Amino acid sequence: MIELIKAALAMGWPALGLLVALLFYFKFSISDPIANKRAVFKTFIGILGAILLFMAIANYKMNFFGESRLLPVSLVLITSMAFMMALYFANISALLRIGGFMFFIAAALSGYGNWLPQVEGGFPPIEEKKDFSNMPQTELADEGEKIIFGGVGQNKVQGAIGKGQCPLCHAFHKGMLGERAPNLDGLPERAGTQIEDARYHKGNPAARDFDQKEAFPGSGTAENAQEYIAESHSCPSCFVVTGYGVKGTNDKVSPMPAIHKPPISLSLPELAAVDTWLYVREGREAPSFDEIVKSYEKFIPESDRPKPPTEGDAKPGASALMADGTEPVDQIFAKGQCVACHTIPGIAGAMGTIGPKLVEGTNAPLRIKDKEYKGKAKSVPDYIMESIVEPSAYVVKGFPDNTMPKVFGQKLSAGALKKIVDYLSQVQEGKEPPKAS
User: Fold this and answer.
1) Which residue of 53, 239, 319, 366 lies most exposed, with the fewest beta carbons within 10 A?
2) What distance in Å separates the CA atoms of residue 396 and residue 244, rounded to the nearest whole number?
3) Could you tell me if 111 and 136 lie in one domain?
4) Are 315 and 309 in contact (CB under 8 A)?
5) What is the tens place of the pLDDT at every residue in 221-258?
């Protein structure tokens, strides 16, 4: 604050000097004591107004190129100046009030925009077209780590998520708890024992007591560890690990989406890279690229296989954000995997039970008033935004803490978050949901 005042005085000293000079001139040149008092007082108000104005300008200059979110302070200072001046200058009071109101609205909108999680702009890196089939295993594993976590060496970084979105649900290291899906540490070895599980019914899919019997009619079951991994990625509900099914289904339905389908849509070469990393990171020799691809071809019919991106349709930086805000809100919910965990009225496929039902137009006001609420939200939109970027600020009764990832503030753009907030603010229990657009 002191630095701001110093900067304001340094910038506006000629104008302030002129006003101070006028103050003394009016003090000694006007003989009528009432008129003298009025002129001196209004000049003093003018000095205060000028100080506020130059503080606003100084704050704007000091913070424009930095990372501070204090730019709305300039608008607040100008608003205060306008309303203060309106009180004492009756002849232009209406004009000052209108101007003050306009700056007040601008300050509110600017403050809200600055409060939203910010996403760094700039030109994304050009995505290089790569031939996974001819890569050495170590290089292919590196590509798999990029798909899972967004970069090489990121597998132990909290919140690191790549195009595959696997860390939203899975843990990958010993001792780490995956609330929504099994820990994948040791998966290549464990996969060989899973297919011998009595519930798996190896070689006899018709005997399975799961939501799906086979990945597609006639595909059969896995016969080895790699085929089990491929089947679990392409048909998660063909075998559900005990304790990780959708709530209320008796572990017959998996909350995991098939990752070769939208919104993730990993191609077979990308799936081969992911699986290779699962082997190599444990010091194991992975099956060859062709063997892994063949294991997926067993469970994914050709018509369902995503095509690898070509040079013409590759989207640079596609994995940097889950959603950039240009998508309809139902696609944003799908890309963020919200539909796997929550029931969201009006959103197709959003029937999850891992998290609470999102009727936030009804829920949010009640939760803000809850004596156990420790967050800072004062309105429905504020509560929804807080629950997305700081899910532990209020944990809904009956749902464990730390189930929802804390990365959506970085993985969804400000525009995508606003669309989610605007939609959920309108969803109320027992009422028709808004149109998803």
Assistant:
1) 366
2) 20
3) no
4) yes
5) 999 999 999 999 999 999 999 988 877 789 998 888 89
